[in-house]
Amino acid sequence: MLELIPGTRSGRKRHWGLALLGAVSGAGLALTLGAAPFVAPALRRVCLPFVPASPAQVETVLQMLKGRRGKLVDIGSGDGRIVIAAAKQGFRAVGYELNPWLVWYSRYKAWQEGVHHSTRFYISDLWKVDFSEYSNVVIFGVPQMMKSLEEKLQRELTSNARVVACRFPFPSWMAVCESGKGTDTAWLYNAKSFKTPSKKL
User: Fold this and answer.
1) What is the H or E stretch that residue 71 is in?
2) Which of 89, 93, 39 is nearest to 63 (CA)?
3) Closest to 118 in 3D by CA, of 133, 127, 107, 128
4) DSSP alpha helices (H): ranges in 51-183?
5) CB of 126 closer than 8 Å to CB of 148
6) Which residues contact 38 (CB under 8 A, 6 or more apart)?
């Protein structure tokens, strides 16, 4: 009869337990590292987390810019869905995004959708970009950044420019059109808006 060495069975259990814990921890770390670039805020002056535009928001943007031509820019373009959708409507569309993972993903999606020739995605801080060459501007911002961005765009945009702000309006500009409900709301501004501060009641 074979005699079991004391502690061998418990030692094996401990070994397998540690191996299982290591595997689970490794999988969790891999998942976190893989997902973090897409959900974590990029480093910028104002924290601007990546929240994908809903189909309703994309449609609202396209409707507000219907009939327009020229270059379009999405400020903080995320996964590129606004830029790609605009390119399909005939725009020469550009996206600026600080998160390199999202920029690389956007370029891949544009290639996959067949619009890579009419789209461009750049890794860049929006505060360092001159937007004067764009006649159509889209921004999914947060309240903390809208005042500073309003001042920047007012200095740089030309008289034929149109701006669509999604989720949050600019604090001083008067919108010429508002569409959607809740988080799907968007505001359209033109050059007259840039020069006309909103009236305080």
Assistant:
1) strand 71-75
2) 89
3) 107
4) 55-64, 81-88, 100-112, 143-156
5) no
6) 50, 79, 99, 101, 102, 105
pLDDT tens-digit profile, the chain (201 residues): 444 444 545 555 455 544 554 544 444 444 333 444 444 444 345 556 678 889 999 999 999 999 999 999 999 999 999 999 999 999 999 999 999 999 999 999 999 999 999 999 999 999 999 999 999 999 998 999 999 999 999 999 999 999 999 999 999 999 999 998 888 999 999 988 876 554 443
Mode of pairing for the β-strands spanning 177-179 and 71-75 = unpaired
Return d(Cα 151, Cα 112) in angstroms, integer.
36
Token pair of 62 as six digits: 């396209």
Helical packing angle, 81-88 and 55-64, nearest 10°: 50
Q: Distance (Å, rounded) from C-alpha 173 to C-alpha 129?
A: 21
pTM comes to 0.75
